[in-house]
Task: inverse folding
């Protein structure tokens, strides 16, 4: 099973993203090494499936979060929670209008276990289709932590995807699965862990 990523879609021109979409990746951009390495990993996995008849699976994981992430991991959920718990400024990149769809770890693991039992070699999107702006996420984290943090706008990183939401129709049909844990509930559990 290859753990691929929503990054294979790059800065997507199709929304939400279906597995059939080939993506919009800048191969020479700052995210190019990561995006293209994952795309190549998918290509070689499919080649092994076709040529050597291997029982392969590819999952495209969208933004996932939960307890046990490192506080300085750099991704948005641990960054915001860590900043909020220390009453430090919440660093929103750009205007915070870009969107992401956040999946709680337990939902993802459940889908992975179900997929391992299936014969399905085509890529499967796994993530939560509820989409939020980064600004909404910042406000929610401040509310749930009761933080005194203010919002600090910082420069938007180059090639930062503007929007991202998985179309999980394939996962729903194949696995009888859909995410059960809403962002607010997942954040509460994650904040509890970070606080401890
Ligand atoms: N982001 C932000 N502040 C941070 C960290 C990230 O505003 O302290 C933004 C980032 O620019 C991106 C989104 O949050 O638009 C998600 O970033 P992350 O690195 O978590 O994941 P990815 O960009 O790979 O989806």
Result:
């Amino acid at each position: 099973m290859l753990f691929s990523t929503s990054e294979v879609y790059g800065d997507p021109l199709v929304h939400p993203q279906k597995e059939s979409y080939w993506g919009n990746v800048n191969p020479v951009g700052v995210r190019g090494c990561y995006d293209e390495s994952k795309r190549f990993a998918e290509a070689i996995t499919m080649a092994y499936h076709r040529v050597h008849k291997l029982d392969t699976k590819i999952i495209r994981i969208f933004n996932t979060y939960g307890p046990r992430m490192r506080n300085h991991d750099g991704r948005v959920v641990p960054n915001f929670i860590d900043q909020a718990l220390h009453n430090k400024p919440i660093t929103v990149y750009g205007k915070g209008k870009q969107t992401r769809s956040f999946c709680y770890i337990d939902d993802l693991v459940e889908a992975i276990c179900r997929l391992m039992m299936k014969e399905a070699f085509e890529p499967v999107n796994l993530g939560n289709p509820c989409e939020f702006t980064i600004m909404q996420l910042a406000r929610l984290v401040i509310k749930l932590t009761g933080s005194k943090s203010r919002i600090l706008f910082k420069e938007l990183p180059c090639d930062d995807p503007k929007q991202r939401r998985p179309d999980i129709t394939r996962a729903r049909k194949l696995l009888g699965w859909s995410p059960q844990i809403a962002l607010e509930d997942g954040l509460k559990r994650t904040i509890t862990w970070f606080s401890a």
